[in-house]
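Batch job 17 of 40 flagged for manual review because the log was empty.
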Amino acid sequence: MELETLILEVIMEKTGSNLKSVLILVILLGLVSITILISGCQKSTIVAATEEILTPVKTEKVTIGTIEKNMTYAGYLKPVKEVDISTKSMGIVERIFFDVGDEVKAGEILFSMDKKTANNSLMVLENQMDTQANQITSSLKMAEMQFNDAKKRLEDMSVLLSEGVISSQQFEDIKIGYDQAKLTYETAQQSYDLFYNNPSKTSIEAQVSTAKENLQDHEVRSPLSGVIAQRNIEEGELAGSLPAFKVVQLEKVILEVNVSESVISKIVLNQQVEVEIKRLGDEVVVGKVVEISPSVDKRTFTYPVKIEIDNKKGLLKDGMYAEVSIELEKSDEAILINRNAILLDNIQKYIYVVEDDKSKRVNIEIGVDNGTKIEVIKGLYEGQEVIIKGQDYLTDGEKVQIIQ
């Protein structure tokens, strides 16, 4: 600036000189200004080059807490028990006592069929059985009387034989008659015992028993307490072998899911799980693992797992869509970091921490990984500043600037 001022003063003094001299002075002044400008730029460049360049990074502190790893599976609810009810014998439906949605108790009659034919068949067989019973009883009494007579005669003939009144041949004839009467009596006794004491071995009694069962089958009862889910018959139609009713138990419902080989070993019986029911506004209820299949499904190569859910309020229905979250791993008082901080060098996992405004590489070993946070079981301690953003191209010992 002093040089420029000096040149200007010279120009002012030479104002009265010729034009050529003025032009020369103006050119000189321009050259000097350019030289000064270039010199200033060079000085600024040198100063900037000597300033430190800091890499901006974002950090989070290492914390202590609980971490869980869960897997979510989906499926459809179904009753804990359900049964299709059919008739054992065909017949015309006479009366229906329950309809879809009704509650029924075990043993209650669902519907009845016309019993006329069954009753007639039973009466005929019972009459036959009475006739046979009378015949067997009469035969036994007759055989018993004949046996007693033969026995008394044999005793009398024994006395006469000893006194020489009758011959040995006569006595043998009496003895043969006695043996035949005894055999007839024993046979009649066996028939009587078989008929009355073990009737299932007699043909007629077996037929009567079957007829009674057939008559009872004309009143179709529910084998369990529950709710009528289906009714497939009408009064007046012929009921056959197809299911007439379906009864379900909904005090509890089952959610069955299929899990992979890597997961099945981490699930245990009676483990509590959270189940989200979509139809009920994403309501979350607690379920329990009640069955873990020991064998793989050859079609899907997964293992079926059954989860039982209480349904005391009756809000859960057969076929509702549900999602279950199963806890696979959990660690309390764990050292936790953001999963984004992890870097990999071959098989070695590592992170960068900030110490004295510099990056420091730390090799770590990890535990539970829930996809957001990771448990570090070796290499870190609570409170350290871990770089979670900007670490991909850092080197160990590089100066950094923490930004928010």
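Reviewer: the log was empty due to a logging misconfiguration, but the result itself is present. The chain has five domains: 2-49, 57-67+332-402, 87-111+221-242, 115-217, 248-330. Unflagging and moving on to job 18.
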